[in-house]
Fold this sequence. Notes:
Elements: H1 5-13, E1 29-33, H2 41-53, E2 57-61, H3 64-73, E3 78-80, H4 89-100, E4 105-108, H5 116-131, E5 135-138, H6 141-148, E6 159-161, H7 165-174, H8 186-193, E7 198-201, E8 206-211, H9 221-224, E9 235-240, H10 252-271, H11 285-308, H12 314-318, H13 321-329
Parallel strand pairs: 1-2, 1-4, 2-3, 4-5, 5-6, 6-7
Antiparallel strand pairs: 7-8, 8-9
Amino acid sequence: MPIPRKLFDTIKQVIPPLDGSLHKGQSGRVGVLGGALDYTGAPFFAAITALRFGADLSHVICSPTAAGAIKSYSPDLIVHPILREDSTPDKVQPELKSLLSRLHVLVVGPGLGREPYMQSFAKLALSLARSQGMFLVLDADALFLIGRDISLIEGYRRAVVTPNVVEFKRLSEAVGIDPNTPASERAGAISRALGGVTVLQKGAKDIISIDTTGADADLEASQLKGIDAEKEKTKETVEVDVEGGLKRCGGQGDILSGTVGTFMAWGKCYEDGAFGDHSIPASKMPLLAAVAGSMVTRTASRRAFYKEGRGVVTQDMLSEIGKSFAEVFGEETQGQDKGKL
């Protein structure tokens, strides 16, 4: 099923122009919170994907045990090893709050792990991000965290959750979704139960759904910014069946987090007036980001698989992200004049 033309055209309006009119940072400053002793690849994949997708700056907020490895993977990433096991949320809060104030979006979960100290720092980050009205993407062990305490994200409509099959089942159970609910309606039911959080259900086809009609979807002060809450109520589901690769690599979900996160950062730049005509409401950005990220990630998976076949690994997808972006949204969005090459 093709993406509706109106939705596709709206997505393209949020892509920053590559015409020399923007300054460094106005095409997105992305943060990824995750990375502990055993998990260094996931935050790297999410953060480097942000740059390959088109973000200007990409930060990784991690533990010191992960920082050296992540730095060695790429000098393009800005690494902050502030999540120390021997520290506390109270001690980390001032530095983390300052760092988040410089970002447009925070991706929480890739390489987070389930160690109590990392989970407590993630909880702190979610609280700070909400208080600052940041856009959020939650994946991997951040979903484990909110599954245990949905109040951390409940009602926050500037967020996207990206569960895989197992995570989706756990989240469904955590919010009390009737197991007899039709499969095509479950993502929307979870969104409604979470108070309007956008759900990107990963699978053979990705299902993106938002339902803000429930009682738990009241906007809090950090989300209002003068909008009419009643007019913002929406219920929408989009299926993305763009062809992907035939092998599901570990780490592909981290690439998806990076693409979705970058588009949400662009949404924040658009909201702040860096570019665009301000005709698209900020409440639309999570859905647009989820659809755009899904389309590009699936295309990159297909392109990498066609080249490498059974031996494809997540790293093979990185060089395909820019080309996939051009394939999905058009060469003109890449700002390239082939006559000058």
